[in-house]
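Technical annex B. To support the medicinal chemistry partners, we prepared a structural model of the target in complex with manganese (II) ion, based solely on the information shown next.
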Amino acid sequence: MADTDLLIEELSTYLKPKDVEHVRVAIEFSRAAHQGQMRQSGDPYISHPIAVARILTPLHIDAQAIIAALLHDVVEDTDTTTEQVAEKFGKPVAELVDGLSKLDRIQFETREDAQAENFRKMLLAMARDVRVILIKLADRLHNMRTLDSMALDKRERIARETMEIYAPIANRLGLNDLHHELEDLSFKHLHPNRYAVLAKALQVARGNRREVVSKILEALRHKLAEFNIQADVTGREKDIYSIYKKMQSKSLAFAEVLDIYGFRVLVNDFASCYVALGVLHGLYKPIPGKFKDYIAIPKVNGYQSLHTTLFGPFGTPIEIQIRTHEMHKIAEAGVASHWLYKTGHDSINDLHKKTHQWLQELLESLSQSSDSSEFLEHLKVDLFPDEVYVFTPKGRILSLPRGATGVDFAYSVHTDIGNRCIAVKVNHELVPLRTELRNGDRVEVITAPHANPNPGWLGYVATSKARSQIRHFLKTMQSGESAQLGERLLNQALNALGVKPQDMDEAHWNKLLRDTGVKTRQDILADIGLGRRLNMVVARQLASIGETVANEMAANPVITIQGTEGMAIQFAQCCRPIPGDPIVGVIKSGQGLLVHTHDCPTLRRGRSSGEQWLDVAWDKNITRPFDVNIKLLVADQRGVLAKVSAAIAEAEANIENINFTHEGEYTGLHFTLEVNNRLHLANIMRGLRKIPEVVRIIRVKNAT
Ligand code: MN
């Protein structure tokens, strides 16, 4: 009960009575929801959310965030739903609680540094609202303060996660006190023995130096007053983890780390900082190389201060920080300082604007500092995220650009996974490959051994890796298909010369490769398929037959078209040939074989341009459907489209596409239909002619 009263008291110093009343309601709501639950320590559960809220009150955080802190575990750990929270406390509070519950569900598992960095970024990206991060940090701090009651193995995991993930986030957001306490507590649980030894040594040193410290404090105050500088001077003991880090980085024994006390001088304005510095340098000699001007060049998290170390009496080094009250507020509250000292009627809707502004100012002040580029990079990802962070089934985190899909994910895992992927599961549910991934998604790729990339993927992949790998694969596949076509073309030509293709042995081929300077048989065949080499020329070279014989070639070689061809054989879009149509093949350099109907107007126009024409014929066993274009002229009457569609369906054809044009008193209906062959098309047209409104039917062979 006492804690509840303390919380209310603290909130009453800066919240409106109406808001304090809402907080009271939230306390009771949370107490009821957690009724019967206990902390590991044996305390009733409600003590935890109240403690979390109390960690946040020095930041003067708003009522919504305090209420969310009080309710932060109710959705995850009790029967209460987000909807109930929204109903009772409003949507913004429910969104904060929802964000916290989501963060709760992800756990840091691997120990690599890069993964830790990704994890931090993911947390920040998921917690769109800065308040979610602040509440999460407070939650973690209270859990760290009460970690002693947890099982040993859990302690270590939580302490490591805190050291690697949460303490750096607190630091980056400029929350100094939180940062140091999180580090200290993590250190205590990760290295209990080292912590105990240092704590004891510190206690002894404290006793010995108490008098020295108060003397120094007195001397500093006196000197500043002498020069009429208004200043608050305080002494503080450094935290154990900073002392430990100093010992480690400089290989010092504890006795050598003398500056376990720091002094802080707060002054009224910017200029006084430098005046005070000069005055104190006159009191004790400064240690060379120890002065740092974080006012001119602030730290990445916005921290500003002058740091100097002086030779104190009895050889004690004295570390001193000098800053204005204003700078001090930012040093203590970091990102939170904006609403901590907000004035008038600022609403929480301004929070994002303010956060943005804070970061903007930070950026500007950082533009000359050396490590600003690194910070810029983090900033972009952290608070204006243009990346998404997703999990592999094994818990690894991958970072992908925003808009990335399952295909991008597959290629970023491995090229083979990308090339063989056929489906993707996001959070255990099958979704289309093109689905955009979101932060925290768990993604699983399903592959099949003989699957191939689909050219359609190029329309939506977001990563350059996926794009280039898909292109590469298609190109290789195309050359394989071209080589197959090339082989058929070459065999036709050999047959026409009266040479049996199977008689062309290694010796023939090796000679051909030497003569042409091409590396492999495959390359030559692909060249033929793509129209870069003429089949007749290659056939003559291969069979070592002179020009004269070739000219006697009488029979027309006929290539059969099976309808299953992919890249190397294509059906012209202008005339859309269907089985049963007389057809002509045209080889275009670099494009393979293009099949037209023999009466295609486009084909006739190209006749003079020196394309190589080939006689081609349909294979007898084609089963796949082909697209064909037809145009109907119909009297513009209601219901005619329905009649036409019915007649097409009746003839068992699919409609792929329809367009309309106005042609005088008539309407033009332009269909693309899927048909099996010429006979099928004739049946469809017969059915359409029976419709009285249909004036004319034309098969279109010059579509553009
Ligand atoms: Mn909690």
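Notes passed to the chemistry partners:
Residues 187 and 241 are 7 Å apart (CA to CA).
The longest helix spans residues 192-226.
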